[in-house]
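Researcher: Re-running this chain for the archive, since the previous output was lost when a drive failed. Same request as before.
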Amino acid sequence: MSRNTAIELEGVSTVYEGERRPAIRDVNLTLERNELVYVVGPNASGKTTLLETINGLLPTATGKITVLGRDVRTQGRTAARDIGYVPQDFIVEPGEPYTSFDVVMMGRYVKIGVLNRPSEKDIEKTMKAMKLLDIEELSKRPMGKLSGGQQQKVMIARAIAKEPKILLLDEPFSNLDPESRERIPSLISQLHDQEELTTIIVTHDIHGILEICRRVVVMSNGKILADETPGKALRKLEAPL
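Model: Regenerated structure tokens:
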């Protein structure tokens, strides 16, 4: 592994508890620092499992994962401090009392500690992340009273407020309104460049991202089917799997 490697998976297979068949199988994938990669494929192809495995949320059955030079098996908690992660499925109860500002501030806890009070810098970073997503006016509104798209933006802002080195986004555009779906991918791309992030974005729709990425990984049946430029990947995706 070179010093410029951010993420490396070598022969990785992951099996969910109670299952026999691996959700991802013998995956080999390397991302250099500051790369932006989209992962696409049909439902149940292993896309979400890939992100959860990189983030240390699922143990590997076989293989090795290295994140920023750390072995995820032995240093997973340390590696996760540098990862901003937005899951595909997050549940917010209608009566959730936390405001959207509170939720975005949670991204700062890795910096300030759960028992410490936020500093002016933490408040500034939180509001900056909300401003990037154009949700400052939602700062005092309870999370449970927001629309699905608004909640999605809050979760992205929380990941950004963490000031991560690696950004993992699972279907971050799925609940957005059409206008935001056009704007947010470009915003994330700009943020990726400005902050020199390493970014993996899982999405089911490749057609809107062709102009803003250089590399697309296609997954099917738990394996990587292709790792190509967007045009070539699109042809693979549209071919019978």
